[in-house]
Specification:
Layout (H helix, E strand, L loop, with lengths): L1 E10 L2 E11 L4 E5 L6 H8 L7 E6 L2 E2 L4 H5 L2 E4 L11 H11 L4 H11 L15 H13 L5 E5 L7 H14 L4 E5 L3 H7 L2 E6 L2 E7 L3 H5 L4 E7 L3 H9 L4 E6 L9 E7 L6 H11 L2 E8 L3 H10 L2
Parallel strand pairs: 3-8, 3-9, 6-7, 7-8
Antiparallel strand pairs: 1-2, 1-4, 4-5, 9-10, 11-13, 11-14, 12-13
Length: about 300
């Protein structure tokens, strides 16, 4: 459905996007991640046709967006981070205006979007009177007016309270059942809950592209064990534990809540179960064990590693 090939974008001497390629088939919900200034918003704007690439190509369902922009854009719905709504208009009037601008049948489309986006209670209200959550819903209705096959959402839950966030997430899940959806967000837990695939961009380059369920195995470091002991010096504990099979490194955890004990991070080099060997070593040496927890790396850990170069 979406083919991005060797995409680059320069602003003067600054290269915002650098040779990015990926393909998104029909029916996926994809999270597009990256730190501020990474190039993800620029990438989204090129996909929607707002920006012209410096080099590379984008095709939407086989249509080159530069060669045939009108037909390509008909397949896309886009909601930027701050939905560009006319605050002095009534919700229904605004949606009718959007329908007219897009040559859509307002009488047929608006009742359907009202139901789909949960706008029934506010259709008679002025947009300026709406909460941020309802304004996001109006923005979604706008982006869905032309019944697009592809929906691109830039920070769709930004600034919402927890209840509003859950409402918008549920709405995206329903929309994603029948459309290809790209979501740009800084809320990493949101990606894990909503997206079946994650693309991470850092410093203009694509640094990860994986099904969400496989991201840890493909890009994440191995599991860590958080260990709290006493009755031993830091140097001796690190020396003894580093010799165990399956341990890649041992370091002190300097930000632990209980600094009266020795807090260690034991990084594992493989998938084998090593906790019994650690307990046996501690028992043999006569150390006191207070805590032994297995910590699996999460999406935040992977994001930091990939975008900070750690």
């Amino acid at each position: 459905m979406i083919e991005v090939s060797h995409l680059s974008k320069r602003f003067g001497e600054f290269k915002a996007v650098d040779d990015v390629s990926f393909s998104i088939p029909t029916g996926q919900i994809v999270g597009l991640l990256g730190p501020n200034g990474a190039g993800k918003s620029t990438t989204m704007r090129m996909i929607t046709g707002f920006f012209k690439p410096t080099s590379g190509s984008i095709s939407i369902d086989g249509i080159d967006i530069e060669k045939n922009p009108v037909d390509a854009k008909k397949k896309i719905g886009y909601m930027p981070e701050s939905a560009p709504l006319y605050a002095d208009m009534i919700v229904e009037d605004y949606l009718r205006y959007v329908a007219q601008m897009q040559d859509q049948d307002a009488d047929a489309k608006i009742p359907k979007l009202c139901e789909e986006c949960g706008l029934k209670e506010v259709m008679h209200k002025n947009i300026s009177e709406l909460s941020r959550g309802y304004k996001q819903r109006v923005g979604l209705a706008h982006s869905l007016m032309n019944d697009p096959e592809i929906l691109i959402l830039d920070e769709p839950t930004s600034g919402l309270d927890p209840n509003q966030i859950e409402d918008v997430r549920n709405l995206i899940r329903e929309i994603g059942k029948t459309r290809t959806v790209i979501i740009s967000t800084h809320i990493l837990s949101e990606v894990e809950m909503l997206c079946g695939r994650v693309i991470i961009i850092s410093k203009g380059k694509l640094v990860a592209d994986s099904p969400t369920s496989e991201l840890r195995a493909r890009y994440g470091h191995k599991e860590n064990i958080l260990l709290q002991v006493d009755g031993v010096s830091k140097d001796e504990a690190i020396d003894q534990l580093s010799k165990l099979a399956g341990v890649s490194s041992v370091s002190e955890e300097t930000e632990a809540e209980d600094s009266s004990k020795l807090n260690l991070i034991v990084s594992l080099s493989g998938e084998e179960e090593i906790r019994p060997a650690i307990v046996k070593k501690i028992s043999e040496k006569g150390w006191n064990l207070y805590q032994l927890n297995l910590k699996k790396n999460n999406l935040e850990d992977i994001f930091h590693d990939l975008t900070l170069g750690k």
